[in-house]
Amino acid sequence: MRLPDPLRGGLQEVLVLTFAATGRGNCVEVDGTPYVYVRTASGSFVMRADCPHRGGPLHLAAEGPEGKSLICPWHERRTATVRMRQRIPAVRTGRTVRAVLPHPPQAEVSHQHRPLSPALAC
Ligand code: FES
């Protein structure tokens, strides 16, 4: 019996980036997708700074009850923080964050600043 190769002949290449956890350079934009490091009542993680609904500023989100969700300021859609925490592997060391982002290593990268809402500030 022959099983299909789950790796399709190789490992997937990913982009590993280091950026500031807070302040200047706290947002890394990869091929037009911004990411920020946030701290919520239910934990810290790297997330997309734009809302999956219509691109609203999710980095300015309010926290839902018990810190279990973020509420987008544009249309008040809720996103579960438990799902967000699992999407992007990341570790904070001091003032920097290293994250494994779902982009190819040759992706276009820029560092920016995005303000965070009080609910997400580190
Ligand atoms: S853009 Fe975020 S809920 Fe619509």
Descriptive keywords:
122 residues, mainly beta, 1 helix, binds FE2/S2 (inorganic) cluster, monooxygenase activity, iron-sulfur
Summarize the structure in words:
6% of the residues lie in helices and 38% in strands. With 122 residues, it is mainly β. The protein has a single domain (2-120), classed as Rieske Iron-sulfur Protein, CATH 2.102.10.10. The strands form three sheets. Strands 4-3-2-10 form a four-stranded antiparallel beta sheet. The protein is globular, with a radius of gyration of 16 Å. The termini are far apart. The structure holds FE2/S2 (inorganic) cluster. Residues 103-122 are annotated as: Disordered. InterPro entries: Rieske_2Fe-2S, Rieske_2Fe-2S_sf.
CATH superfamily: Rieske [2Fe-2S] iron-sulphur domain
Can you write the helix and strand succession as a string?
A: EEEEEEEHEEE
Helical amount among residues, as a percent range? under 10%
Major sheet summary line: 4 strands, antiparallel
In the CATH classification, which architecture applies? 3-layer Sandwich
Averaged pLDDT: 92
Strand content: 35-45%
Work out the count of structural domains. Answer: 1
Top CATH class:
Mainly Beta
The CATH topology label is Rieske Iron-sulfur Protein
Q: Can you tell me the overall shape?
A: globular
Model regions low in confidence, pLDDT < 50 over at least 5 residues: none
- How many H/I helices? 1
Bound molecules: FE2/S2 (inorganic) cluster
Number of strands: 10
Keywords: 2Fe-2S, Iron, Iron-sulfur, Metal-binding
Domain Rieske: 12-75
InterPro entries: Rieske_2Fe-2S, Rieske_2Fe-2S_sf
Protein name: Rieske 2Fe-2S domain-containing protein
